[in-house]
């Protein structure tokens, strides 16, 4: 037993000391990596090559844990249940870890997984800064990365990777659809309240481009720290702006806190229009329709949209006592598509599997006629939604009404405009 513990700890310690040279970070990285240990089989099984291992790197303890976290691990298990327990004669196993919303911790965990635990494919990501860091590792190690929850459109733009698929949504699709709809309703002047990290910057940038291309004007912006509890100073700046629209370019608890405090400031009842550029179902359920009613937003998946989404949601609810978010549904869909590609290709070789994933349409509960492009973007329909009035809701999770279905080729950024170096212009 002592020898096993040393074998697990040494690679983590070495990687951390080389990367940071700090004992505090060493302890944090090793503690985070240790979270996956209960799911790890003995090293003999890894050496025999009889296991296909899927690593879920996610936020288990921070502001995205409700919409992702353990629910995303459950979503991965649903994918394996649907597909079957083995592929190419190998037993499918899932391990997971908490990246704590820290790119360096996430990178160390994923590198350790690949180098010492034989992980074949990585899924989730959540935080965009984390996903960008993990994508660099998986590209370097030639492993496939199935991204769900992370939003930055740079993941398929200037930082694209030939071994990644951005599955669920991105900042371009979310902001493009919503901004066009709001400007079309005559709300022409905008002010952005933006999370100050990769996701928020990309969401603000993509929305601002759409606003201006549609004839609107951006009058100002303010950026707030990640995981910020007090929005009073930022909301005062937004309130004092002559802009007709206050756009929230954030998510998770930042979005929830901003909306709660905006309601306390009276902004939700003012002549200004509050726009949610990214919404998570669990945050919406916590906030309630009294606050959110009438707000437009764009979503990639909703549990109550079709018979297929409802059937999936019932299975997920039986395990988690909550309806699945788009991010969690995306994990199930992406892993299922990956496993089917492995079986069809007859190998786990990343190049062969990626080629098969691109050649195979995505037709499941999540997307119909979806396609994986060379830049890694999975293109599928998006949905312009509106929060229901409280009187229209039948249950805690009955929150959205469909306004319009937006075809994927209209919702997502055109292939040649992202700056991905693997796209032949």
TrEMBL record:
Keywords: Amino-acid transport, Signal, Transport. Residues 1-24 form the signal peptide. Belongs to the leucine-binding protein family. InterPro entries: BCAA_transport (IPR051010), Leu-bd (IPR028081), Peripla_BP_I (IPR028082). It comes from Methylobacterium frigidaeris. One of its GO terms (biological process) is amino acid transport. The keyword Secreted does not apply. Residues 52-388 form the Leucine-binding protein domain. The keyword Signal applies. This is Leucine-binding protein domain-containing protein. It holds the Pfam family Peripla_BP_6.
């Amino acid at each position: 037993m002592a020898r096993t513990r040393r074998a697990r700890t040494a690679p983590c310690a070495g990687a951390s000391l080389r990367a940071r040279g700090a004992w505090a970070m060493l302890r944090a990285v090793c503690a985070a990596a240790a979270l996956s240990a209960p799911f790890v089989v003995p090293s003999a099984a890894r050496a025999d090559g009889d296991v296909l291992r899927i690593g879920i790197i996610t936020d288990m303890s921070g502001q995205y844990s409700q919409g992702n976290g353990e629910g995303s691990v459950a979503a991965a298990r649903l994918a394996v249940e649907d597909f079957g327990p083995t592929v190419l004669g190998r037993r499918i196993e899932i391990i997971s870890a908490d990246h704590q919303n820290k790119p360096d911790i996430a990178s160390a965990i994923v590198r350790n997984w690949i180098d010492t635990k034989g992980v074949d494919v990585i899924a989730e990501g959540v935080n965009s800064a984390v996903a960008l860091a993990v994508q660099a590792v998986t590209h370097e190690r030639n492993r496939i990365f199935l991204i769900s929850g992370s939003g930055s459109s740079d993941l398929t733009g200037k930082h694209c990777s030939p071994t990644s698929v951005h599955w669920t949504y991105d900042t371009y699709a979310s902001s493009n659809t919503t901004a066009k709809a709001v400007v079309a309703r005559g709300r022409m002047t905008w002010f952005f309240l933006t999370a100050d990290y990769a996701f928020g910057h990309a969401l603000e940038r993509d929305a601002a481009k759409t606003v201006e291309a549609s004839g609107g004007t951006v009058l100002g912006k303010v950026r707030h720290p990640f995981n910020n509890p007090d929005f009073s100073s930022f909301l005062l700046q937004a309130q004092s702006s002559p802009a007709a629209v206050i756009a929230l370019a954030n998510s998770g608890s930042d979005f929830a806190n901003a909306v709660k405090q905006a309601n306390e400031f009276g902004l939700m009842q003012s002549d200004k229009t509050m726009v949610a550029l990214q919404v998570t179902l669990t945050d919406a359920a916590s906030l309630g329709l009294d606050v959110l009613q009438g707000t437009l937003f764009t979503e990639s998946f909703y549990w109550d949209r079709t018979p297929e989404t409802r059937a999936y949601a019932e299975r997920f609810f039986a395990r988690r006592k909550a309806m699945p978010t788009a991010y969690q549904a995306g994990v199930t869909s992406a892993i299922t598509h990956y496993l089917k590609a492995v079986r069809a290709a007859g190998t786990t070789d990343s190049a062969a599997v990626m080629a098969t994933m691109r050649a195979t349409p995505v037709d499941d509960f999540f997307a119909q006629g979806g396609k994986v492009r060379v830049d890694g973007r999975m293109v599928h329909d998006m949905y312009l939604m509106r929060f229901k009035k409280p009187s229209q809701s039948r249950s805690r999770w009955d929150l959205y009404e469909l306004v319009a279905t937006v075809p994927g080729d209209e919702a997502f950024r055109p292939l040649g405009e992202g700056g991905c170096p693997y796209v032949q212009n």
